[in-house]
Specification:
Jelly Rolls, mainly beta, 2 helices, about 280 residues, 6-stranded antiparallel beta sheet, 5-stranded antiparallel beta sheet
């Protein structure tokens, strides 16, 4: 009888132990955050507020929690009050496999009182950092440009709302023919661009029915391609990192941005707008 009692006591104690263990292992209920329709606020000297923020990098109380595409549900495993920090993510050089938080956009930090299972939806407005140096900004909405034609075929500024970016203002149009098969835009004034890994980006909007090459020319003669853009049916925004081509040896006191194409299709159509050269 005593043995049976001890056995029952052991089973009861064991069940209590595992019940407590199970309760301890239960994850706290999460709340959720959804970022929709992020915007970019710019000043007159920073040019267009058009952006291509594709991802949100988020932190909770200073701890990194993950990267999610804009519009996704992001879990927050914490109750009560939390400090949430958001970074705007981009596709570096337009490549899906190289997603990064954009160094020239400020993070957004706010405090949220969290309730389990509740979803919080926000539409953050990002801004450029105060450390961002805009070496060159042009939206081509008025005559005059810091680019010159350096190919067989000269580029032109167009104002046809059916062809311009956003359907208003002006955009650059580049084309070629068999007699003049190359088109090239080259900055007239060289800029000092720091080497040593300093962040340097070229932002622009484009639309084209053939490939375009973009890069820098150092010292007036050393042409260094940074990226080749593929054809796109609609206007696209891209962030081109120039850090590596500028930091490569030898370095120069001045660099010029170039955009060029060689005729590949019967009727080439290349459109460029909202060019920004930004340095940290």
């Amino acid at each position: 009888m005593r043995g049976k009692f001890l056995y029952l006591f052991f089973v009861f104690s064991l069940s209590i132990f595992f019940s407590c263990k199970k309760d301890n292992l239960k994850a706290p209920l999460a709340s959720f955050l959804v970022v929709k329709n992020p915007t970019l606020k710019t000043t007159s000297s920073q040019g267009s507020n058009h952006h291509k923020i594709t991802d949100i990098w988020y932190y909770v109380d200073g701890e990194f929690k993950g990267v999610f595409p804009v519009g996704s549900v992001m879990p927050i495993v914490k109750n009560n009050q939390a400090e949430i920090t958001l970074f705007a993510g981009i596709k570096n050089n337009g490549i899906s496999a190289t997603r990064v938080p954009y160094v020239f956009y400020n993070s957004i930090k706010f405090t949220q009182n969290l309730e389990s299972s509740k979803t919080y939806t926000i539409s953050p407005e990002f801004e450029y950092t105060t450390s961002a140096i805009f070496a060159y900004v042009q939206n081509f909405d008025s005559p005059g440009s810091q680019f010159m034609s350096a190919g067989d075929s000269a580029y032109v500024m167009i104002t046809d709302p059916k062809k311009t970016f956003g359907g208003s203002g002006g955009s650059i149009f580049m084309s070629m023919n068999d007699a003049k098969p190359t088109s090239k835009m080259l900055q007239t004034v060289p800029y000092y661009l720091p080497s040593g890994g300093v962040p340097i980006y070229l932002e622009l909007n484009y639309k084209c029915n053939q490939s375009i090459q973009i890069g820098v020319i150092g010292g007036g003669a050393d042409e260094r391609p940074a990226i080749t853009l593929n054809p796109t049916n609609d206007w696209n925004k891209i962030y081109i990192q120039l850090t590596s081509v500028v930091s490569a040896q030898p370095t120069y006191s001045g660099y010029q941005i170039y955009i060029k194409a060689n005729k590949e299709v019967e009727k080439p159509e290349i459109y460029i707008d909202n060019v920004k050269l930004i340095i940290q």
